[in-house]
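Sequence design from tokenized structure. All designs in this work follow the same two-part layout: the structure record, then the generated sequence. An example of the structure record is given first.
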């Protein structure tokens, strides 16, 4: 089986190169591309040429325009990458009978209420980023191709920058930390997303899959927390492992979103109901704490070696 992966250097894309490898021949591209192929999602004609050259059975799109605040003044570029490019890939997948795997976001919802969002809840994005991601979903669905769209949230990885690393750095530099306490979601590891993707893609391609396996699925770690409690969890873990900092977990101060101005409005309720995914693919998603602890172990080993 030939798999074409876009976004190989992103947090999820990097993990997908590992998780998809046992399924077949993976051609992984970043924006620069290779050997005349392009992984630049803003180059729509190039994407078409690339997909036709590779002739994959599975297309996995882990690339996106993710600069949430910049998208407010750069809507055309965000729309091209997040909406138009997935439409191109979906059209190619439909023509070839290929499976398209795509990633979306909790930002398609307005974040109201406290109930976890289900796949069939009405989407009402608050930002340009959220609107363009929703348009991408709609383009894929309208194409008629076989597809898996995984909506996720609060993605992190040990590789590259992330919230936990930022908190550890600031706790070493500052006398106090103020962290938003009214946005609720589930920190979700890129490795978990990649492993679930490989599991789901294998079932769709090789096993007798029911109609419930295709379409939109919510994919996050289990449980929920606030950025404030997430920060305290990170600093508590660091403290327990002997990392000395100026700010400990009890010195972190909660603040509302209104006290921290951003160009794009964030949803307050980013809880996603993952029941459909777990039932369709016979999965049990681990708690968010499990993945974060594992990531912190990697980070703290690096910190102590400096």
């Amino acid at each position: 089986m030939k798999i074409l992966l876009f976004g190989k250097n992103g947090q999820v894309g990097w993990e997908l190169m590992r998780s998809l490898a046992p399924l077949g021949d993976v051609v992984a591209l970043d924006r620069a591309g290779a050997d005349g192929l392009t992984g630049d999602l803003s180059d729509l004609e190039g994407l078409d040429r690339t997909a036709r050259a590779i002739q994959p059975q599975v297309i996995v799109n882990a690339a996106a325009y993710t600069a949430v605040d910049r998208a407010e003044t750069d809507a055309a570029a965000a729309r091209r990458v997040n909406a138009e490019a997935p439409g191109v890939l979906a059209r190619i997948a439909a023509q070839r009978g290929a499976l398209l795997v795509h990633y979306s976001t909790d930002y398609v919802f307005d974040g109201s209420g406290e109930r976890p969002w289900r796949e069939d809840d009405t989407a009402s994005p608050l930002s340009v980023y959220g609107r363009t991601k929703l348009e991408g979903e709609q383009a894929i669905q309208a194409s008629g191709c076989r597809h898996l769209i995984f909506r996720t949230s609060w993605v992190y990885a040990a590789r590259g920058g992330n919230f936990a690393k930022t908190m550890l750095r600031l706790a070493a530099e500052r006398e106090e930390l103020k962290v938003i306490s009214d946005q609720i979601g589930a920190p979700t590891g890129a490795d978990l997303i990649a492993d679930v993707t490989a599991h789901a893609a294998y079932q769709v391609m090789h096993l007798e899959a029911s109609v419930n396996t295709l379409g939109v699925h919510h994919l996050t770690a289990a449980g929920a927390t606030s950025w404030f409690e997430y920060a305290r969890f990170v600093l508590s873990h660091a403290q327990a492992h002997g990392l000395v900092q100026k700010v400990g977990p009890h010195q972190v101060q909660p603040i509302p979103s209104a006290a921290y101005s951003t160009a794009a409005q964030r949803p307050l309720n980013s809880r996603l109901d993952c029941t459909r995914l777990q039932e369709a693919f016979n999965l049990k998603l681990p708690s968010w704490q499990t993945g974060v602890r594992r990531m912190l172990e990697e980070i703290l080993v690096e910190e102590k070696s400096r």
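The radius of gyration is 19 Å. We note this feature because it recurs in several other targets discussed in the main text.
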